[in-house]
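#struct-queue
[09:14] JT: dropping the first one here, sequence first, then the C-alpha cells:
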Amino acid sequence: MSIGGTLADARRQAGLTVTQVSQQTRIRESIIRDIEQGDFTACGGDFYARGHIRSIAGVVGADPTPLISEYDADHGPVGSMRAADVFEPSRPIKIRERRSPGLGMIVVVVLLAIIGFAAYRLVSSHDHSGKPAAAATTPPARPSAHPTTAAKPSATASPTPSDVVINVAAGQEPCWVLLTRASDGSQIYMGDVLAGTSMTWTERAAVSLRLGNPAAIILTVDGQRHPINTVFPVTLNFSPGASPSSSASTSTSTSTSTSTSASG
C-alpha cells in the first residue's frame, strides 16, 4: 500500500476527518488530501514532505518510520539532496505583505520629530553665552531642634518576574513551531524553523509552545537544554521565573476511535 493510502486508512480507523487532522497538525487540508493521493509536490520539498508525513502519522496513530523509508526509496535519501534544495522549495512560496499607505512619509515625520526634540533639549540646556545653565540648587534643610523618630522602613515591593528565554534549533530537518501566550491564546509566532537554523524568543509571561516535529530540534529554556521524549507533535508550557524542569508541562495529541465520521 502506498504512503498516502496507509495514512488515509489510519485516519479513517482513528475516526478523524481531514479537517480534524489539519487542525492538530497545522497542515493545510489541501496538502493532506494531496499526500493521501500520493502527490507531494505541494509540500515544498523533500524535507517538508518528510515532516508532514511524520506529523500526520503521529496524529492518526501510524508508525512514521516505514513511511519515511518508503518515501526515501521513491524520492532519494536525505543525504542525496543539495544544500540549495533545503532553502529553495520546489514550489515558490508567495508571501503577501500588507503595506500601509504613506509608510515612508510616517517614518520621515517621526524622525524629524525626534531630531527636533533632541535639538530643543540641547539648546534649552545652555544659556545664550554658550555656557551650561546653572542647575537649581536647594539649600540644605536646617536641623530641627527637637529629636525626630526614625521612620519605619516601608514594605519592599515584590520583585518583577524574570523573563523566560526559549531557543529552538533545527538539525537536519525543519520543525513547524507555534508560540502563543497562555493567558489569552494570542499568537506570538507561527512558522517553520528551517534545517540548520535556530530561533529565540524572550517573553515575560507564560507561553505555550507547539512543536510539529520535535525529534528534529534541540530545545533550550533559560540556558538549559529541555529534553523531549516523543516524535509526535507536542505542546509545552513555560512560565517565567521558574526552572524549565518545573515550569514545563507536556501535552500530546492522541486520537481515539470513540466516534466515526466521514473523511473530509
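[09:21] JT: and here's the second one, same format:
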Amino acid sequence: MTVAEQAHGHVGPRILLVEDEPRIRDFITRALVTAGYEVATARCGNEGLRMGHAGDYDLVILDLIMPDVDGRVVLAELLKERREQAVLVLSCLADVTTKVDCLELGAQDYLTKPFSLAELLARVRVRLRGEAHVTNEVLKTGDLVLDVGRLEANIGRGPVALTRLEFLLLRELMEHHGQSVGKGRLLASVWGYDFDPGSNVVDVCVRRLRSKLGFDLIKTVRGEGYRLAS
C-alpha cells in the first residue's frame, strides 16, 4: 500500500484506488496526485476492502477483475458498510449486464478500459462535486420524505434504505412532482450521459423502488415515462 500526497502539505479530496495492475495503478495515481487529490492504493480486493472499511474516502475507484476477490463482491461489501460511499468502477468488462449489475449494487459510475485519462479525471471531478454538498437536507412531497444524508425514504411506515441509484431516481421524480419524467432524462440525470439509452435500467430501478415503498408510489405514463403519485 502507498499513499501519495501533494507537496507543500496541501491535501485534496481523498481517493482510494483498488487496482491490481502495477502499471495502471501507478499511471492513475500520478495523474490524480497531479490533479490535486490525495491517493491511497490497494493492490487486491481484500486490501481494498480493509482500507475502504477503515478509511474515510471521498471516492473509491475500483477494478473488477482481481486475483483474490471479484470486484463486484468488493463493491457490495463496501456499500453494505457505507451506503453513502461514492464508487467509480474502472474495468475492461464492457458488457451491459456487468455495468447494470454494478450500478444496481450502488456504483455511481462505470468507465471501461482502455480509457482516456482526460475522461477519467472529468468523471472524478463530477463525482466529487456531487459528494461535496452531502447534508442533512430532507425533501418532502405529500407523505413521502427523503433523507438526503442517510439515503433513506419514509412514506409513513418507517425509514427504508435506498441504494444511491434508487435515491437519485426518486429525488428526480420528487423534484418534478406532478409532471411525468421521461426515461431519457432519468438516464441522463441518474446514470450519466453515456449510458446505453436502449437499456432497461430505469424500469428495473422503478420496480425496486415500488417493491420497497409501494406499487402505487410511482405511476407509469405510457409513451412518456414516470411520475410520482399525487
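[09:30] RK: nice, looked through the second one.
[09:31] RK: Residues 1-10 have pLDDT under 50 and may be disordered.
[09:31] JT: good to know. The CA atoms of residues 14 and 67 lie 25 Å apart.
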